Amino acid sequence: MHSAVRRYKVSDADAFIGKIEEGAFTDRLKEVDGFVGYYVIHGGDNDVATVTVGESDEAISRSAELAGEQVRETASDLVDGDPDVTSGEVRIRAER
User: Are 17 and 40 in contact (CB under 8 A)?
Assistant: First the structure.
């Protein structure tokens, strides 16, 4: 299992999240081989984080490409700089 967390500073969190939801973005993610899940977290103020989970590093890499395209095409005007990214193998899992 692999995961990537991206933390964005944005000028308008609700608008940013709305633009991420536009179109068929999540449907495209679901088509990635090994994709497990994608989550968007509004951390208050102008902080937004995304969490992508996949079965392999390749799934995370492809999901990141699609997410980057979506942000550049729909929400780049709302983003202040590049996101902080942490990506790698999930070492501890606790699931119900």
Answer: yes
Domains in the chain, please, with CATH?
Answer: 2-89 (3.30.70.100)
CA-to-CA separations, 83 to 27, 57, 58, 64, 80, in angstroms, rounded: 23, 19, 20, 12, 8
**Three-state SS letters, the chain:** CEEEEEEEEECCHHHHHHHHHCCCHHHHHHCCCCEEEEEEEECCCCEEEEEEEECCHHHHHHHHHHHHHHHHHHCHHHECCCCEEEEEECCCCCCC
Tell me how far apart the alpha carbons of residues 40 and 52 are, in angstroms, rounded to a whole number. Answer: 9
Residue keyed to tokens 């989970």? 53
The pTM (predicted TM-score) of the whole model is 0.89
Q: 48 is written with which tokens?
A: 């937004």
Q: How high is the pLDDT of residue 44? A: 85
pLDDT in tens, 46-59: 999 999 999 999 99
